[in-house]
């Protein structure tokens, strides 16, 4: 067996020629005697690398000795510089080992700053800056249809989609999609699975080809075509055991046998419907093919080469304006808004990540300022050494370079530890994001800190240590040239001012972070104390959706479910609604008042509820009555409205009014029989919407959300509710079973503010602690330097209070300066948080006052310990030391 080629070649190049054969030959002999007989290539490589590394110190000594020989020219300037650099690094390592407390402090401080900066930067880079995993993703756009005279969701109807795709001149192609769910059977236990319905050309538009099987084609979109589905790689592996013959296999989707025609690639993700496992072809109903107002499709497209967003928007606006001629009632003033697909996906989280990135940068600056103060103090302790070096001929630049090298050596452990902590910190943060919101962001499924981010982290360390270490190093080098008592006093004064400057910077940054966390804390408190319009305590929800769509069968199933769940001990009331509160906008529609102008339409949210819904949710009845068991098919159609609709449309007097919905073909007008309190449907941070409630007995809906009021802990009854639902029909899965408190806590409105609060508060605490430690260090060093002066003053009769007051007065300047600069910066930067705040002004003087008082108290505590040490100085001992 021959020795490994690469380490052997490396050694031959490093060893001087006169020693090359001897050293490498000795290693070869040892290799042949001890390692070659094992015949293990892995052990051979490991052994040779280990021995080569062990030989490096001796090789470097031989190279230094071989550089200058009698009668030969001296080494080049580059070699001398490298030799000095190596010597400075070695000296810096020795100095660091001699000062373990300084090394530990710098390592911990820098690790905190680097971990915060790299983790947040990595998250920001992967979400905001990394391209979507599609072909030429910059050309993909999202098209929203907006009507300036009517409330609109941005979605389009099927007829709109066809016209946009056929009549535009700026898009290569366009496709549409909508979300939903299906009950899947034949692939393990029955389960409710999120799905996406897509038009033909959807995957081709994204540049994605199925890993197995085929894509959809136009024939799959026909109403009479055999039902087909394309599944994600995750569903294929998790539900179907990664069966390689899965193409052509049938599964049940909501009671309909469907053929699997393709499996998507493993890395495919579609964040706009992040949890979807199934992709089905869009098959519009006859009503959708005729009614232009039946919106519900999201429209995406691919720009032609050279086309800008403004050009595409103008072109599609021309198409939208044509709708007014064919449908003046529902498209009176339609226009479009075109944004990149990436902006559509990451737009809601961009302010959050930018705030976190700024906060992490502030923490890094605070950490570096703290280290700068430590380096100033170290330079003062080494003044005599620097003076000796200057007297022996060392130039100021040479001393600065040595001190800078030592600073970088101190930074290496902190950089390594910071990168390691950042890796784990970002993983924990990603795992803390609720699953639905994590799936709605690109690249988070397999996210980790990549080599580029690590390289940027190392660059941050080098840049920050160079920037914050250069000033202390230059000051120490200047002081080394001066040996008089007066010059030393002047140098001490300048050193104190420099350290105080670092403390000012730390306090200013701490004010910004602490004020930001205070604003977010008040915002989260305001959000969580906002009433959703019902009592959340003791309330649990669960979704059950039968696969059958026969109205009598669904009604019978719902009645049995209510009876079973209502009989569970600990449940005081149970009801159903077609969509859980605080789970999104849901269904909406338009209506007109019977007998009024048919063109005067109002938009409202629509909910279908059981008779006891308002009582179970504790939603107050304001006027009239709620539903009863007699409100069923065959009885006069009735509805209940909320107070917002009553005030906006009927001036508070809607009882007895009759309203007409165009989507109920052949139905008579619906009589308003009651007004209930306003209930928050979509999110806590959104305005209350008008709502019309239909009785479940008259409008059967296949989407059923169970709400149950409990007398104790609702989490203890989740299993009993699932068992009761399974007893009614084991083929109907129960999913999204949660307490209402958990639903609110995991909602997007609360999470995006709570996550910012937690992270910014952590950054703020770290910054405040570092600032207090920095102030304490400055005052402690000042007391040490002024020990003899304090002793003289006390010997001449100065009181302890006067001495303590002078020490505390020295803390006022950096503290007051930092507070003033920090508050000014906060007033300037706080509007960045405006989109994240809720019922809290961005420039909140109460928060600034609390932050200022807290930091003043902390500065006082940091100053008390040095002041107490100063008043305990023994004048006799101090004079003897002088």
Count of helical stretches: 27
CA-CA gap between termini: 72 Å
Shape: globular
Query: How many individual domains?
Result: 4
Structural class: alpha+beta
Radius of gyration: 36 Å
Largest sheet: 6 strands, mixed, barrel
Proportion of helical residues: 40-55%
Number of strands: 22
Strand composition percent:
15-25%
List the strand order in the largest sheet. 3-4-9-6-8-7
Query: Segments where pLDDT lies below 50 for 5+ residues?
Result: 68-74, 483-488
Average pLDDT: 81
Structure in words:
With 882 residues, the chain is of the alpha+beta class. The chain folds into 4 domains: 1-67; 149-332, no CATH class; 349-529 and 749-881, no CATH class; 546-732, no CATH class. It is built from 27 helices and 22 strands. Strands 3-4-9-6-8-7 form a 6-stranded mixed β-barrel. A hairpin with an 8-residue loop joins strand 14 and strand 15 (602-609). Helix 12 (350-381) runs antiparallel to helix 17, helix 14 runs antiparallel to helix 16 and helix 23 (748-785) runs parallel beside helix 26.
Topology:
Layout: H1 5-14, H2 17-34, H3 41-67, H4 77-98, H5 100-129, E1 140-147, E2 156-157, H6 158-167, E3 171-185, E4 191-198, H7 202-206, E5 212-213, E6 228-231, H8 233-240, E7 250-253, E8 256-263, E9 278-281, H9 286-290, E10 295-303, H10 309-326, E11 334-340, H11 341-346, H12 350-381, H13 383-391, H14 396-432, H15 435-439, H16 451-479, H17 485-528, E12 539-544, H18 551-566, E13 571-577, E14 588-593, E15 602-609, H19 613-617, E16 621-624, E17 638-642, H20 643-650, E18 658-660, E19 670-676, E20 691-695, E21 704-710, H21 718-728, E22 734-739, H22 740-745, H23 748-785, H24 787-795, H25 800-829, H26 845-871, H27 875-881
Parallel strand pairs: 4-9, 6-8, 15-20, 17-19
Antiparallel strand pairs: 1-10, 1-11, 2-10, 3-4, 3-7, 3-10, 5-8, 6-9, 7-8, 12-21, 12-22, 13-21, 14-15, 14-18, 16-19, 17-20, 18-19
Helix pairs in contact: 1-2, 1-3, 4-14, 5-12, 5-14, 5-16, 6-10, 12-16, 12-17, 12-23, 14-16, 17-23, 17-25, 17-26, 18-21, 23-26, 24-27, 25-26
């Amino acid at each position: 067996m021959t020795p490994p080629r690469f380490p052997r070649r490396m050694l031959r190049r490093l060893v001087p020629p006169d020693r090359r054969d001897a050293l490498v030959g000795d290693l070869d002999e040892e290799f042949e005697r001890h390692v070659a007989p094992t015949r293990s290539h892995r052990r051979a490589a490991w052994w040779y690398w280990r021995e080569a590394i062990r030989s490096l110190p001796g090789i470097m000594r031989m190279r230094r000795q071989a550089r200058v020989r009698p009668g030969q020219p001296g080494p080049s300037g580059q070699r001398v510089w490298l030799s000095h650099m190596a010597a400075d690094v070695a000296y810096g390592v020795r100095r660091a080992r001699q000062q373990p407390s300084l090394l530990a402090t710098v390592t911990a401080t820098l690790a905190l700053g680097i971990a915060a900066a790299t983790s947040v930067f990595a998250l920001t880079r992967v979400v905001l800056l990394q391209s979507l995993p599609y072909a030429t993703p910059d050309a993909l756009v999202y098209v929203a249809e907006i009507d300036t005279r009517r409330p609109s969701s941005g979605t389009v109807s099927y007829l709109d989609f066809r016209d946009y795709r056929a009549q535009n001149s700026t898009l290569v192609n366009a496709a549409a999609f909508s979300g939903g769910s299906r009950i899947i059977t034949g692939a393990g236990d029955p389960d409710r699975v999120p799905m996406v319905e897509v038009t033909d050309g959807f995957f081709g538009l994204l540049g994605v080809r199925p890993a197995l099987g085929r894509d959809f084609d136009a024939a799959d979109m026909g109403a009479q075509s055999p039902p087909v589905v394309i599944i994600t790689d995750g569903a294929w592996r998790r539900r179907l055991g990664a069966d390689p013959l899965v193409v052509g296999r049938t599964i049940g989707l909501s009671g309909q046998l469907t053929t699997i025609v393709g499996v998507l690639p493993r890395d495919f993700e579609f964040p706009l419907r992040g949890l979807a496992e199934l992709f089905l072809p869009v098959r519009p109903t006859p009503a959708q093919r005729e009614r232009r107002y039946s919106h519900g499709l999201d429209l995406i497209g691919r720009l032609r080469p050279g086309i800008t967003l403004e050009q595409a928007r103008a072109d599609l606006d021309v198409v939208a304006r044509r709708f007014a001629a064919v449908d003046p009632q529902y498209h009176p003033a339609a226009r479009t808004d075109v944004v990149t697909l990436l902006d559509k996906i990451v737009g809601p989280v961009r302010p959050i990540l930018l705030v976190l990135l700024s906060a992490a940068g502030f923490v890094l600056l605070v950490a570096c300022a703290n280290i700068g103060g430590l380096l100033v103090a170290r330079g003062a302790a080494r003044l005599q050494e620097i003076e000796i070096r200057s007297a022996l001929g060392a130039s100021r630049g040479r001393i600065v370079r040595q001190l800078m090298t030592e600073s970088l050596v101190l930074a290496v452990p902190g950089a390594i530890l910071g990168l390691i902590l950042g890796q784990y910190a970002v993983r924990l943060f990603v795992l803390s994001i609720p699953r639905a919101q994590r799936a709605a962001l690109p690249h988070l499924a397999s996210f980790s800190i990549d080599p580029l981010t690590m390289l940027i982290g190392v660059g941050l360390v080098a840049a920050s240590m160079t920037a914050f270490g250069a000033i202390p190093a230059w000051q120490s080098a200047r002081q080394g040239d001066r040996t008089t008592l007066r010059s030393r006093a002047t140098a001490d004064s300048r050193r104190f001012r420099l350290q105080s400057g670092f403390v000012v910077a730390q306090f200013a940054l701490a004010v910004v972070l602490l004020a930001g966390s205070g604003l977010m804390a008040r915002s989260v408190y305001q959000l969580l104390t906002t009433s959703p319009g019902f009592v959340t305590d003791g309330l649990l929800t669960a979704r059950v959706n039968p696969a059958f769509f026969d109205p009598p069968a669904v009604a019978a199933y719902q009645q049995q479910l209510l009876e079973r769940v209502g009989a569970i001990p600990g449940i005081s009331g149970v009801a159903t609604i077609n969509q859980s509160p605080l789970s999104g906008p849901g269904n909406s529609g338009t209506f007109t008042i019977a007998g009024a102008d048919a063109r005067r339409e109002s938009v409202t949210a629509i909910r279908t509820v059981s008779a006891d819904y308002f009582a179970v949710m504790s939603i107050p009845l304001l006027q009239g009555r709620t539903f009863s068991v007699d409100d069923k098919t065959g009885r006069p159609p009735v509805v209940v409205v909320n107070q917002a609709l009553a005030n906006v449309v009927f001036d508070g007097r809607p009882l007895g009014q009759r309203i007409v919905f165009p989507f109920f073909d052949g139905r008579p007008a619906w009589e308003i029989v009651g007004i209930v309190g306003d209930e928050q449907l979509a999110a806590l941070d959104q305005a209350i919407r008008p709502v019309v409630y239909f009785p479940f007995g008259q409008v059967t809906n296949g989407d059923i959300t169970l709400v149950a009021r409990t007398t104790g802990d609702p989490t203890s009854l989740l299993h009993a509710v699932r068992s009761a639902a399974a007893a009614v029909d084991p083929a109907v899965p129960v999913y999204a079973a949660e307490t209402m408190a958990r639903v609110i806590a995991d909602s997007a409105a609360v999470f995006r503010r709570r996550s910012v609060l937690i992270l910014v508060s952590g950054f703020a605490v770290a910054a405040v602690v570092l600032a207090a430690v920095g102030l304490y260090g400055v005052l402690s060093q000042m007391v040490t330097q002024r020990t003899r002066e304090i002793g003289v003053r006390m010997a001449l009769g100065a009181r302890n209070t006067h001495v303590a007051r002078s020490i505390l007065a020295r803390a006022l300047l950096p503290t007051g300066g930092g507070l003033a600069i920090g508050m000014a910066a906060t007033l300037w930067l706080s509007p960045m948080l405006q989109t994240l705040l809720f019922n809290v002004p961005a420039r909140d003087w109460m928060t600034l006052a609390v932050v200022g008082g807290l930091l003043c108290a902390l500065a006082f505590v940091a100053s008390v310990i040095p002041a107490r040490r100063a008043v305990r100085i023994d004048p006799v001992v101090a004079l003897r030391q002088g």
